[in-house]
Write a structure and sequence with these properties.
Number of strands of chain B: 0
Strand order of the largest sheet of chain A: 1-2-3
Radius of gyration of chain A: 23 Å
Number of helices of chain A: 10
Number of domains of chain A: 2
Largest sheet of chain B: none
Structural class of chain B: mainly alpha
Structural class of chain A: mainly alpha
Largest interface: A-B, 59 and 49 residues
Strand content of chain A: 5-15%
Order of helices and strands of chain A: HHEEEHHHHHHHH
Distance between the termini of chain A: 75 Å
Number of helices of chain B: 6
Oligomer: heterodimer
């Protein structure tokens, strides 16, 4: 077992940057703010004794370089293609970063902790489906629907969450959003036609809440107001495009079913 | 009054659901749930005295930020863990839907009204978060040395 004092002379620039980047990449994958990621990488590198650190992060890429006091130098980058929101992992990575910065965690120990966090989930998938029931059902009632509307929205919400959880890798996020919103729209129209719900618009709004990138639009404006113009504009365009795709899916379903039932 | 209670309770239910969808740890889920109710209660109260969606969204987001930062300080976690579920009632799902359905029915003026409302809420909520975080950031960093 290693002693609690870290011998900074032993760690190379590559070790330091690799560990810092692993934490940064994990944070980016779980949906953290750009500021937090750049801050974390910088702090970890300095905690391991770096003399100079540079980081640049956008939504899908981290570039960083580190110089050690002995002249060792390393520059690495990481590409992140599928960011999603996982606040459990974000908290875990943040915890690791705190521990490293407090001292006493060697590079090997940090790598061990990182491997444990990488695929960890706080609870099984069925708990997420229960979440979908509360989210879609709750918001159907929130927007003034009846109890029946809430139940229908919850059922459709679970169906689209399942579609999303079992997405094959050849379908990208945008295509998935189009399929999910179209399916949700068709199901809502069918329920309305067969008298299973009172307000079709409320049912659709409840299920839209699950897909709409409302928080991403908020985050993008926040990024820009903080000064991260590049990240902010990428995220804004991404989420506006996604909103259009979702509107297209629901709109397509409404036009199709309107044509069939008219 | 009844509307207020139903609104806050359903906002809590929505925040609870999204806490699971965002994979918030079980021990923090009660706080995330309450956060959704707190932010919607602030929105409704401000709207009662000043019927303006932008200002109400601003106040609501600022309240959610302060709530999350306090909890983050106590639990030593990122504030995002509480902030994201708390802000969920601010996501303009309703106005976005009506923007779209009005466009499909070719009622362009109604679509424009709803579209502007969507933008107002989004801008207000983001502005509220930034304003409140700036103040909290300043308070936490008084007398501390910057790392950059």
């Amino acid at each position: 077992m290693q002693t609690t004092e870290i011998d900074t002379a032993q760690v190379t620039a590559d070790d330091v940057l690799r560990t810092a980047m692993d934490v940064g990449e994990g944070l980016l994958r779980s949906g953290a703010e750009i500021q937090r990621i750049e801050d974390t990488i910088t702090r970890i590198a300095y905690a391991y004794g770096a003399s100079h650190v540079e980081v640049f992060t956008i939504t899908t890429l981290i570039i960083a370089s580190v110089r050690m006091p002995d002249g060792g130098y390393s520059s690495q980058n990481r590409r992140v293609l599928t960011p999603s929101t996982n606040l459990h992992r974000m908290r875990k990575y943040n915890e690791i970063s705190r521990e490293i910065c407090a001292g006493g965690v060697t590079v090997e120990q940090a790598q061990q902790k990182l491997r444990e966090v990488k695929r960890s989930e706080p609870y099984p998938l069925w708990a997420v489906y229960i979440g979908a029931i509360f989210a879609a059902g709750g918001f159907a009632l929130f927007f003034g629907g009846s109890m029946l509307d809430g139940v229908v929205a919850a059922v459709i919400g679970v169906i689209i969450t399942m579609l999303d959880a079992h997405r094959p890798s050849f379908i990208n996020g945008m295509a998935q959003a189009l399929i999910s919103s179209f399916v949700a729209g068709v199901l809502a129209e069918l329920c309305m036609h067969f008298g299973l719900c009172h307000n079709m618009d409320i049912v659709m709004i409840g299920t839209i809440m699950l897909m709409i990138p409302g928080l991403t639009i908020g985050t993008s404006i926040r990024d820009m107001l903080w000064g991260d113009i590049v990240t902010g504009s990428i995220r804004l365009i991404q989420s506006l495009l996604l909103a259009c795709v979702i509107a297209l899916g629901y709109g397509g379903a409404m036009l199709l079913m309107g044509g069939i039932f008219a | 009054m009844m509307d207020f209670v139903i609104g806050v309770l359903t906002a809590c239910a929505g925040a609870l659901g999204f806490a699971f969808l965002f994979r918030v740890d079980l021990k923090y889920i009660p706080w995330a749930t309450i956060g959704g109710g707190v932010s919607w209660a602030v929105y409704l109260l401000v709207f009662e005295f000043l019927p303006n969606v932008f200002v109400s969204a601003l106040a609501c987001a600022a309240a959610a930020t302060v709530y999350s930062e306090i909890l983050a300080y106590i639990c030593r976690t990122p504030a995002t863990v509480f902030l994201m579920p708390s802000l969920i009632p601010m996501v303009p799902g309703g106005s976005l839907y009506y923007t779209m359905s009005n466009l499909i029915m070719k009622d362009y003026s109604a679509a424009a009204v709803k579209g502007v409302e969507t933008a107002e809420v989004m801008l207000g909520a983001s502005g509220g978060v930034v304003a409140a975080s700036l103040v909290i950031y300043a308070i936490r960093h008084i007398g501390k040395k910057s790392i950059r």
